[in-house]
Amino acid sequence: MVQEHAAPSDKLFRLFSIAKEFSDEPEKENGESSLFKYNAESMGLDLEYDADVASTAPEPASYETVFLSTHKAPCRSATFNLDGSLSAIGSADCSIKIYDIEKIIAREVR
């Protein structure tokens, strides 16, 4: 079976090119390096870019729990799947944990 992959975004290349232009000319404006001036186009990522591409990963329910731990740093983001049975939580320690909400509730009831 041949899988088609979406072409990667050229946003990183464009940002790198802009930064390289400024690093070749290290002039300062108002005591501030022009390398660190941002505009709306250079801020953030386009998370909608691959929204229409179907995922090839197996369903989360088919994963086996291999390692269970807590986050080592503050949590910065969280989301639930459509039916609210799973939650993915990301933290400042660069880890993402996927929680089965039903298992958490069952553990609390005991």
Automatic annotation (TrEMBL):
Domain of life where this protein originates: Eukaryota
Subcellular localization(s) per the UniProt record: Nucleus
Residues annotated as signal peptide: none
Keyword Transferase: no
One term of GO molecular function: RNA binding
InterPro entries named in the record: CstF1-like, WD40/YVTN_repeat-like_dom_sf, WD40_repeat_dom_sf, WD40_rpt
Chain segments annotated as transmembrane: none
Main location as per UniProt: nucleus
GO biological process, one term: mRNA 3'-end processing
Entry GO terms, CC: mRNA cleavage stimulating factor complex
SUPFAM superfamilies for the chain: WD40 repeat-like (SSF50978)
Keywords: mRNA processing, Nucleus, WD repeat
WD-type repeats, residues: 68-102
Annotated protein name in UniProt: Cleavage stimulation factor 50 kDa subunit
Protein's organism: Panagrolaimus superbus
